[in-house]
C-alpha cells in the first residue's frame, strides 16, 4: 500500500522557487533513497512533506491530504523526521528529550536504549553535552519515540566519524528488520544506500529526473545526477 505520495510538488523560499515538480512515493515497509547533488532540493522536499514550509501539489500520507491539514496536525500524522543538523532540546536531558517525543506504539524508551546503548548510559546528561554522533542517535531515538509509520532521515550520517557512521547505519538496518518501518533516506553514501534502499528517486534542479529500483541505478545515471 502506498504510504506517502508526492506528485508535482512545488515550493518556494520567498520569490525564489526551489521545487518545480517533485514526484515520489513510499510504500508501506519500503526504504526509498532520495538522491541528487547539493542544492537540488532534497531538504526542501523533506521540509515540504513535513509541512515545515509551504508547498503545492499532491501530498498525501496514508490516503490523507497533508496540505488540507493544519501543519501541526500533519506533523502528528505519522511521519517521524530526523532533520538535517540533528536538532535536539539542548537544555533537556537525554531521557527528557526522548519522553517529550513519546507517543504510544512499539517504540519505547527501553527499545531505543537497546538500539543505542549510549543513550541509556547518558540518560541524565544534557543533550548539549553529547558528541555529534550521540546527538544524532538522540535525534533518531526521538523520531522513533513518536512511533511513526514513516521515518525520514535527512543526512543522518553527515559529518560523523566512520565508526559512528557504521553504528548509525547498523541501527537503521535494525529498525528496518525489526519493525519493517517505511524509511525515506537522504544521504551521500551511495554504497550504504544501495545496501538498504529498495528504490531511488533522484532530484535535479528541484525536479524528479529519475526514479526506479535501486538495482536499476546505473553508473551512468549516478554519474550524471549524483556525481560520484
Ligand atoms: P544539500 O544536500 O546541500 O542540503 P538539497 O538537495 O537538500 O542540498 P535544498 O537545501 O533543498 O537542497 O535546496 C534547494 C534550493 O533551495 C537551493 O537552490 C537552495 O539554495 C535553496 N534554499 C534552501 N534553503 C533556502 C532558504 N532557507 N532560503 C532560500 N533558499 C533556500
UniProtKB/TrEMBL annotation:
Family annotation (CDD domains): ABC_TM1139_LivF_branched (cd03224)
Domain ABC transporter: 4-228
Annotated GO MF terms: ATP binding
Top-level lineage group: Bacteria
SMART domains cross-referenced by the UniProt entry: AAA
Entry keyword set: Amino-acid transport, ATP-binding, Nucleotide-binding, Transport
Similarity-based family: Belongs to the ABC transporter superfamily.
Protein name stated in the entry: ABC transporter ATP-binding protein
Organism: Roseovarius ramblicola
Amino acid at each position: 500500500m502506498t504510504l506517502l505520495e508526492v506528485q508535482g510538488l512545488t515550493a518556494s523560499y520567498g520569490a525564489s522557487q526551489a521545487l518545480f515538480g517533485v514526484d515520489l512515493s513510499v510504500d508501506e515497509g519500503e526504504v526509498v533513497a532520495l538522491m541528487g547533488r547539493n542544492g537540488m532540493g532534497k531538504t526542501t522536499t523533506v521540509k515540504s512533506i513535513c509541512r515545515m514550509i509551504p508547498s503545492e501539489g499532491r501530498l498525501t500520507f496514508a490516503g490523507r491530504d497533508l496540505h488540507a491539514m493544519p501543519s501541526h496536525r500533519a506533523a502528528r500524522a505519522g511521519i517521524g523526521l530526523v532533520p538535517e543538523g540533528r536538532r535536539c532540546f539542548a537544555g533537556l536531558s537525554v531521557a527528557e528529550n526522548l519522553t517529550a517525543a513519546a507517543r504510544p506504539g512499539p517504540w519505547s524508551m527501553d527499545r531505543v536504549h537497546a538500539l543505542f546503548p549510549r543513550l541509556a548510559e547518558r540518560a541524565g546528561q544534557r543533550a548539549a553535552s553529547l558528541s555529534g554522533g550521540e546527538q544524532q542517535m538522540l535525534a533518531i531515538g526521538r523520531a522513533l519515540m513518536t512511533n511513526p509509520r514513516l521515518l525520514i532521515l535527512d543526512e543522518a550520517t553527515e559529518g560523523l566519524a566512520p565508526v559512528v557512521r557504521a553504528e548509525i547505519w547498523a541501527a537503521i538496518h535494525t529498525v528496518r528488520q525489526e519493525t519493517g518501518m517505511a524509511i525515506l533516506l537522504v544521504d551521500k553514501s551511495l554504497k550504504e544506500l544501495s545496501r538498504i534502499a529498495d528504490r531511488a528517486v533522484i532530484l535535479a534542479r528541484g525536479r524528479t529526473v529519475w526514479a526506479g529500483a535501486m538495482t536499476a541505478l546505473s553508473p551512468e545515471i549516478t554519474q550524471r545526477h549524483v556525481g560520484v
